[in-house]
Amino acid sequence: MTAIAETRKFEAEVAQVLHLVTHSLYSHKEIFLRELISNASDACDKLRFESIGQPELLSGDAELHVDVSWDPDQRTVTVRDNGVGMSRDEIVANLGTIASSGTRRFLEAMSAEQKGDARLIGQFGVGFYSAFVVADKVTVLSRRAGLSAAEGVKWESDGKGEYSLEQFELPERGTAIVLHLKADEDAFLKRWELRSLITRYSDHVAFSIRMPLEKDGKPSEEWETVNAASALWTKPKNEISDEEYQSFYKSLGHDFNDALTWTHNRVEGSQSYITLLYLPAQPPFELMMGGRDERKGLKLYIKRVFIMDAAETLLPNYLRFVRGVVDADDLPLNVSREILQQNRQLERIKAACVKRVLDLIEKLAKDEPEKFHTFYQAFGNTLKEGIAEDHANRERIAKLLRFASTKGEGSARNVSLDDYIGRMPVSQDTIWYITADSHAAAAGSPQLEAFKAKDIEVLLMSDRIDEWMLGSLNEYAGKKLRNVAKGELPLDEEAKKQQEEASKAAEPLLNKLKELLGDRVGDVKVSARLTDSPSCLALSDYEMAPHLARLLREAGHDMPTSKPTLEINPQHALLKRVEAESDAGKAKDLANLLLEQAEIAAGAPLPDPAAFVQRLNRVLLG
Ligand code: ADP
Ligand code: MG
């Protein structure tokens, strides 16, 4: 016989979460109800799924539901379900320890956030603990479906570090969560308050949520269903209002903002399925924290039965911000996860989901530019991953990208590749861009000068992912994409002749610089890129931009170092000065400063900053 009653400590991280929850989550406390109902509904989903193979689990009580009740005398609110329930071991594992990495990310996010907003809690798989935002004691009574009445469990805690556990006779399967409200939380003892919260947050839970009718301020024996209790996605589009779509989104995505837009489709034929896919307006915390594991947000149903969170199976990584439901009619209900992972039908549904989402974003870009802008601010950089990840849709994704540009408005990212192509002269066959650490560094780069002089538009890219993405985007709509800082610029016959003549004329200067700079440079050349600045760096076609190489090196990657090629503008007064300078020391200072300013402009690290400063001061005083 195991111990009948015992007291245990919460795992350290659970205790930390509880501390945060009870001490810093003040706004939107009401979220606890949504979280407990969501858990109750999950428990019903799980039982329905298990009962496919073991129908006896539903015995005598086949209608799954969630009951919400209140007791003004005891000052309790109770959420009860007749779902799958928990055994003693499951209670310990689910409520006392960390099942997912969500808790850790929650702690990180909350410490980053400072001000506590309880609405965040559901996004991290720590929803149960929101009970302690309003309750100073929580009692959980649970009996696992399939176990006997004697194997019920009572779990109780004040959320301060310990919980008690005892065996507890329970006549029915399922779970009841009893909240003993804190002294100042009486608002939740009112039926209309609870009911309006259910309507606001849980209307689209697919099971009935029932409440007792009220008599003399107290719950009566009579119960009514208070939510819509239908699988919204199964209804025809024209019978669903925007409000219904939005409130379904909120309960589905644990989001408290409206969705930006959605696409709802029913496919019939050799394979029948329904997809309802949403674009959120803001990145959920998970995404901002860089959490790429355990993706949630896309639920797979088979014939209305919830099977699993299937975001990994049904959406590529670069669309991980999409939320929604897929309900397939033709899959066997008892499929295992392993089988689902490589199921051909799901492969097809996945391709359809990708197409729907890209259609949706395209439509947004075309018809609702402001919403598209909101979307792009939030998820543009995530979408860019698709350029490398999804070859088949590369052109479609590239079409959706927006950049800052020398012909755009300031740093606003609102120029598409099509805009660029539409403006370029017929003689131009290349889409030019520059990458840098920041918009200012890109916009101010000396490498742009020749392009400005010739009125050629250049896209200004300064998001970290850009350089990496461009590795997979060499062409768009038959036009090459090229970095203005890399390789030889294509020159017309006349310019080529000029360039050759200038190089020849500058030969003594080039040789002088090579000698003065010694090891620090691979080569020194006359630039075709510069009009105003004295110098810049030039990269070979396959070299990585210096700012990115620096980032990677700082992140601990072993990056090959190659000596830079310095390009100069012999017309510039500084180069005239180098040419004329007879003092070897002074000439050396000037030459090094020409190289160093080119390195700074390109975001490359200075190999010896102190020496640079001394040189600069000598020249300033000189
Ligand atoms: P999440 O729902 O994201 O898993 P929660 O903190 O809300 O995180 O719940 C933790 C776990 O506790 C659930 O995954 C589930 O296993 C268990 N649980 C909570 N409430 C119930 C319930 N009413 N019935 C059965 N299991 C539950
Ligand atoms: Mg939950």
TrEMBL record:
SMART domains, alphabetized: HATPase_c
Subcellular location: Cytoplasm
Residues covered by the Histidine kinase/HSP90-like ATPase domain: 28-185
Keyword terms, alphabetized: ATP-binding, Chaperone, Cytoplasm, Nucleotide-binding, Stress response
One example GO MF annotation: ATP-dependent protein folding chaperone
Annotated spans, A: 1-337
Residues engaged in binding ATP: 35, 39, 81, 86, 94, 101-102, 123-128, 175, 337
Location (main, coarse): cytoplasm
One GO cellular component term: cytoplasm
Keyword Nucleotide-binding in annotation: yes
Assembly description: Homodimer.
Full protein name: Chaperone protein HtpG
Organism of provenance: Dyella choica
